[in-house]
Amino acid sequence: MLRRSLEERKRSRAIDDFLELPEVESEAGAEAAPAERVFEARWRVDETVPVRARIGVTPGPDGGQEWMLVAEAEQPWNDDWPSPAALFWPEEPDIAWDRDGAAELSLRKINPLPHDDKETRRLFRNAGRGGWHIHVVVHEAMTTDERGRLPVARWLPPGLRHHVVEHRAAPQQHRGLNWALRDLGVQVPRGGAAVLPGRPAPDGYEAEDFSVRAVFLDGSEPTDLVDAVRRYAALPRPLPDGAEDALTALREDWHLLTVEEELERQRGLVAMYAEALEAMTKSRDLYREAAERAHEALVAYQESAEAAPERQRPSDTPVASPLQQLTRTFERFKGRTQRPVAPSQDEP
Asked: Is 176 part of any domain?
C-alpha cells in the first residue's frame, strides 16, 4: 500500500524520490514479531526547501498496523506545507491508516462522544496521553445539517489536518461533557469548543486561552478555533514514545541520498580515512624516534663503560678495617700499662 502510494506521488512529482529499506529481523529471530518496514522519501517545499521523511510500520493488534512518521526540513517547519502523512498514505477513505493509536479514533472524521458519561470521562483521560495528536472537543448547540457534520479540521492548514482528533458532543451532552472534562481542568462553552491539554500538558497551556466561546457549524470557517489549534501546535511538547529513536535514525542512518550528497559523503569518508592515516603515521614516527633515542643511549652507555679504568684487584693479604686497627692499637696500649715496673736501685 505504501509503496503504491509513493510510486503515485513520485509520478505526479509530489515527491522527488523514495526508498524502501530491506527488512531487518530482530535479535530474537524469525519467531519474534515481524520486522519493521521502513520507507524513506524526500521532496521540496516552497520549490527550494528540502524535506526528508521516514516512516516505520509494524503489525499492530487485531490485524491492524502501527506506524510512526518523522519529517525534517532544512528550515523551520511551516504548517502551510503539505502534510507528510498525506504524501505517504493514500487518500482513499476506506483505508484506515488515520487512527489515533491510543484510543482508536479517526483523524479524518468526526468522533461522536459515547452516550455514557463515565465512558466519556475514561475516553478523555486516555486521549492525548503520550501522543502527538491534538484533541479538540466541539459542542453542537443544536442539531446540525449536512454542513455542520463535516470535520472542522478541513479548515486547518495542510500540515495540521492529520494531527487533529475532533470529538463532537450532541446538544444534550453538554453537562455530561463538562463533568467528564473536570479532571483536565477544561470546560467547553455551550455551542463552543476547546483544545484539550494532553498528558502531560505542554508548558504555556492555559485552559482559558484555548477555549472558544462559539463555533458556528453552518459551513463557515471557525477562525477562532483554527487560531487556537495553531497556537497549541506551536507550544513545545515532549516527543511521543519511540519518536526520538526514529528522529535519530532519520538524521544518522539516512539512505536516500542524491548524487551530490553521495559525493559529499564519499569526500567525508576520504577525509576521515586521511586523518586516521596521518595519525597512524605520526604515531609510527614518534615510536621510531623514541626507539632510536633509546638505542643511542644504550650505545653511549656501553662506550663509557669500556673506556673506564679497570679497578685494582684485591691483594691476597686482607686489609684490616679501621675498626680492627683501632682495636689492636687499644690492645697494645693496654698491654703497656699493665707491664710491671722494675724496682729502683736507690730503694732500700
From this structure: yes
